Amino acid sequence: MLHSLPEIRGKANAKAYYQNFVDGFSERSFIVKEIFADGDRLVKYWQFKGKHTGVFFGIPATGKDVDVIGATLVTMRNGKIAEEQDFMDNLEFMRQLGIIPR
């Protein structure tokens, strides 16, 4: 069963969260395709690609390639990221990993 992730607060927790992508995927790339900004708010439109060769949030390596598009809403404060909200098609991501059948 899939569960939603809890809210992540603080630099150390954010770093630990994203470390799952580093540990779980080789041949990975994170491409920021476009950024739109208005004052202290911005949107990043991105693409993540990689080969699932390591443990990813407890999911053993499947050897599958993933290619997903997403967006991140960002709030800046004093020139630093104060808050981020990531959005992507998690169902499609799990299908590409072979965890959920098509």
If you had to describe this structure to a student in words, what would you say it looks like?
The protein is of the alpha+beta class. It has a domain at 27-97: Nuclear Transport Factor 2, Chain: A. It is built from two helices and four strands, in the order H-E-E-E-E-H. It has a four-stranded antiparallel beta sheet. Strand 3 and strand 4 (80-88) form a beta hairpin. The radius of gyration is 15 Å and the shape is globular. The two termini are 16 Å apart.
**Measured on Cα atoms, how large is the radius of gyration?**
15 Å
SSE class: alpha+beta
Q: Tell me about the biggest sheet?
A: 4 strands, antiparallel
Low-confidence parts, pLDDT < 50 over ≥5 residues? none
CATH class of the domain at 27-97 reads Alpha Beta
Mean residue pLDDT: 91
Features:
single chain, 102 residues, Nuclear Transport Factor 2, Chain: A, 4 strands
Topology record:
Layout: H1 11-24, E1 25-38, E2 41-52, E3 65-77, E4 80-88, H2 90-97
Antiparallel strand pairs: 1-2, 2-3, 3-4
Quick overview of this protein structure:
Helix content is 22%, strand content 47%. With 102 residues, it is of the alpha+beta class.
